[in-house]
Amino acid sequence: MSEFQLIKDFASQNSREWRNILNSNATTITTCDKIVQAFSDVSPLLSSDADLVVFGSLARNECTSGSDVDWTLLVDGQVSNSHYQSSNIIKKKFISLKLQEPGTSGMFGNITFSHDLVHYIGGEDDTNHNISRRILLLLESDKLLINSESDVFGTAYERVIKAIINEYIIHDSGLSSVNHINDNVPRFLLNDIIRFWRTMCVDFAYKQKEQEGLKWGLRNIKLRMSRKLIYLKGLLMCFSCYNNKDLNKENIPQHLTDLTLLKPLDLTLKILGPRKVDSLLLTLIDKYDEFLGMLDDEKIREELKSLNMHEAYANGTFLHARKIAHEFQDAISEIFMKDAEIMEFSKKYIIF
């Protein structure tokens, strides 16, 4: 887990502190060290065909006191009985550490096989869980270095990310004449990122019905903030290819692979920092810092978690969080409208 160096530099240049972002980064590092230490007596747990991968706040470097640990044992190799045994060991270790367990949906806390992620894109077998795991690998994931081995092509985690991106590029007909028309946008990937965002939105509404409003207030604010941030990362990854004369079909995969390794906030700064939208970028990060501060306050977090849809709009804490989310959204919207090239990209590839 790395530090938010781009965030630190930008904060220093603009007389900002962003204590909540930096505190969450420190909490992430401490939590990951704790996990790795706990697994030190389990050898060998993983080999070159498997990695312990985390998602969510831990992967975004935004771990707070109430964060859970969304993980999967990512397997890229021949099936083995040891994978199931390793998965059970991981579960028991996380329970012993008394860390918040993944939700009950079944998407995390188990084994994920690379074949499904790479070869089921868009097909009938591309379930909500499959598309979510695949896109989350690109937008908010990280591997924990626990007895993890690599071969000449990297670790399982690195190989799977490269394979997913290559699958999107190889089958993207829009890139077939990229050297002639200079149109580098990976539309296949972009469409799946948009599909994932809409899937998250639909899933939010479905859980409202299925769970009878359980955790509605907290889930609503997360959808507006952290979920929207990773969607922004995906859009900006694809935008970085737009009118980029240094890219072609051969080097786009490596370009995108490099960007997947950046945390959402760092990537946002990397892409938008040079585009003369500093005041809007500062607002965006200011509001995200406030959001993380609210999540790190146990009383506020529990209050939001307790609210259902009918109670929330009469609750002052929720209304304050909602105001932060609206200002965060307004900053993003204005960036996409103010920057002529981003607006052109949006009209051509996101809207239509």
Textual characterization of the structure:
The protein has 352 residues and is mainly alpha-helical. The protein has one domain (5-351). The protein is 62% helix and 5% strand. It is built from 17 helices and four strands. The chain has helices at 5-13, 19-38, 56-59, 81-96, 114-119, 128-139, 156-170, 178-181, 187-210, 216-239, 252-260, 264-272, 278-295, 298-306, 309-312, 316-338, 340-351; strands at residues 50-55, 71-75, 110-113, 141-144. It has a four-stranded mixed beta sheet. Strand 2, helix 4 and strand 3 (110-113) form a beta-alpha-beta unit. The radius of gyration is 20 Å and the shape is globular. The two termini are 37 Å apart.
Work out the radius of gyration. 20 Å
Q: How many strand elements? A: 4
**Count of individual domains:** 1
Please bin the fraction of helical residues.
Answer: 55-70%
- Measured distance between first and last alpha carbons: 37 Å
Largest sheet: 4 strands, mixed
Query: What is the mean predicted local confidence, pLDDT?
Result: 90
Work out the oligomeric state of the chains in this entry. Answer: single chain
Give the overall silhouette: globular
Strand order of the largest sheet: 3-2-1-4
Range of strand content: 5-15%
Structural class computed from helices and strand pairing: mainly alpha
Q: Runs with pLDDT <50, length 5+?
A: none
Order of H and E elements: HHEHEHEHHEHHHHHHHHHHH
How many helical stretches? 17
What is this structure, in a nutshell?
The protein is mainly alpha-helical and 352 residues long. The protein has helices at 5-13, 19-38, 56-59, 81-96, 114-119, 128-139, 156-170, 178-181, 187-210, 216-239, 252-260, 264-272, 278-295, 298-306, 309-312, 316-338, 340-351, and strands spanning 50-55, 71-75, 110-113, 141-144. The mean pLDDT is 90.
